[in-house]
Amino acid sequence: MQEYSVRRARTTDVPKIQALVAPLVQERILLGKESVVFYEAVQEFRVIEDADGALIGCGALHVMWEDLGEVRTLAVTAEWLGRGVGHALMDRLEADARELGLSRLFCLTFEVPFFARHGFTDMGSETVDPLVYAELVRSHDEGVAEFLDLARVKPNTLGNTRMVKRLV
């Protein structure tokens, strides 16, 4: 019998997602977001519930371009760390990315070993085609700015690693 299950997030999950990520925001591992941002992006989220229905993990897949998505707000409760919850979330988000036709995933993270185990590598100075860059730079999305390594988001990215994975 499985101890947990993954499903699409619902609007009623937003307060639970916020409560789940709050300790990570306090530790400056994740950036804090307003409630409205979570509600606007609820369709991007997957959540994991334990056998009793308690929310124990979350993660989002945000499409940035025709071939590129970002894994965002990946979090697991402290009690469930090391029990495969994060891996189950990543597997589901990667399946979602493939279903959408994406061929690359991006993340900005302090958790380099976790993402490396999932095939992500430090993207270093990797960039995109100049025409795509010209389109992406118009976005008001902070994740896009972080992907492009724009100066205005440098305070958000200090200590984080920009990682990318090519999906096969």
UniProtKB/TrEMBL annotation:
Domain N-acetyltransferase: 4-138
Gene3D superfamilies tied to this protein: 3.40.630.30
Keywords associated with the record: Acyltransferase, Transferase
E.C. number(s) listed in UniProt: 2.3.1.1
MF terms in GO: L-glutamate N-acetyltransferase activity
Root EC class: transferase
A Pfam family: Acetyltransf_1
GO cellular component terms, A-Z: cytoplasm
SUPFAM superfamilies referenced in this protein's UniProt entry, alphabetically: Acyl-CoA N-acyltransferases (Nat)
Biological process, per Gene Ontology: L-arginine biosynthetic process
InterPro entries in the cross-refs: Acyl_CoA_acyltransferase, GNAT_dom, NH2A_AcTrfase
Entry protein name: Amino-acid N-acetyltransferase
Source organism: Cryobacterium cryoconiti
Phylogenetic classification of the source organism: Bacteria, Bacillati, Actinomycetota, Actinomycetes, Micrococcales
